[in-house]
Amino acid sequence: MRFTVLTYLCQHDSVFSCKVAVCAVVLLSFRVSAEQLDPATRQLSRDIFQQLIQISTTDSTGSTTAAAEAMAKRLRDAGFPAGDVQVLGPNERKGNLVVRLHGPAPATRKPILIIGHLDVVEALPADWSTNPFQLVEKDGYFYGRGTQDMKVNDAILVTTFIRFRTEGYRPDRDLILALTADEEGGKFNGVDWLLKNHRDLIDAEFVLNADAGGVTTMNGKPVAVEVEAAEKLYADFQLTATNPGGHSSLPVPDNAIYHLADALSRLEHAPFPFELNAVTRAYFESRAPLETGQTAADMRAILKTPPDQAAIARLSTDARYNSTIRTTCVATRLNAGHANNALPQTAQAIVNCRILPGHSPEEIRQALIRIFADGKVSVRYMDSSGKVSDRAPGGKPFVPIAPPPEVLNPLKSVADSMWPGAPVIPDMETGASDSVYTMAAGLPSYGISGIAIDQDDIRAHGKDERVRVAAYFDGVEFYYRYLKALSSR
Description:
Elements: H1 2-12, H2 15-35, H3 39-54, H4 64-77, E1 85-88, E2 96-101, E3 112-117, E4 136-138, E5 141-143, H5 151-167, E6 175-180, H6 190-197, H7 199-202, E7 206-209, E8 214-218, E9 221-231, E10 233-242, E11 246-247, H8 256-268, H9 278-287, H10 293-301, H11 309-315, H12 319-325, E12 328-336, E13 342-343, E14 346-355, H13 361-372, E15 377-382, E16 388-389, H14 405-418, E17 424-429, H15 435-440, E18 445-447, E19 452-454, E20 466-468, H16 469-487
Parallel strand pairs: 3-6, 3-7, 7-18, 8-19, 9-17
Antiparallel strand pairs: 1-2, 2-6, 4-5, 5-20, 8-9, 10-14, 10-15, 11-13, 12-14, 15-16
């Protein structure tokens, strides 16, 4: 009916009335589509999500190639030429999908690369209330491994590219989607492999990483739309204590397990120093007005010179803020001994660190040695392939680059239309992502997602991982709108 009214106004009334009517229709369409996708898109996106969740892509027994091939078939079936959809990788299990949606020819602008990883962390079915490798819908949520990290956005991006192809959308530059292997671990990181072996396939002006950013909510209510402008550096360290061992009836005071336990206890009680950078300072400046009471006051207090130590201590009790204001190192694995009735000859632990920008892994290794203060405990660096060395890399992470207006302004516009009143805030990813490879390759990278997750319901890597059903479909609409806004002239 609204199109009938629009046609009448444009035929019988003034140009001004026609323009007003057009604006009204556009705004109304935006408002309706934010609440409900058309049935065909809704079903397509759900089917793709379910298919991805049900393909195991764990490093131990799964295959990213299987997931990549499944998505490649969907894209080819939607009309993408075979030459624009490629699955390639270092071996049969670690395949990566690269698909290109062409802009005008000859190209006048470099492409936009969108990345996401297909692999997921391990999940023990016995620990879950649902099967982690089945998409289960209950109580308004989708459950399954990858519903937060990050098959949720893989499905959204494949859906978006299919929608663009089906409707004949022609962006103002090429859009490249790369869904890759081994972000969560393993020896064959897909982004790194593509950059080293097929840079021409994914070379771009900048990168959007759907594995970061997102909509922070409280009880389902949007609080802020966050865009990743920096991220911590990931590093693993192997701690080892040794002893000649012997009969357990003849205990010795320098038991290797005791040395290791004492070192880890000192780490638990020796947090790294408080530190803000340009991105985290901007984050707290923007976040403070959204908070109330003591939390809001503490956020403002840590921005002062000097920062308020009591405020730092209170914010540090919240894991989200603690990981934002300091480097964090935590024990994640233990292994010791060889028999119940023998003293341990070796005790080992893995300490995982997430390092603030501006600090190197070797700098943190030296700090751990000082914290442990025990010559019987060695601290060695372990790389992503499991190789252990006496020294860690000395290079420091790249200086954070704030998103340019070209990236930020469309994001603000789309976010305001979908989550009115929720400000767009730059933040620092406290984990780590594949942006470390693209940034090292000279490609500015920004973490952007439209998935809304309650700030107290982050279950990535944990049991019963889930995403709200409504949040998933909002995410489908978000990336469709955002990529269009970014690539339309």
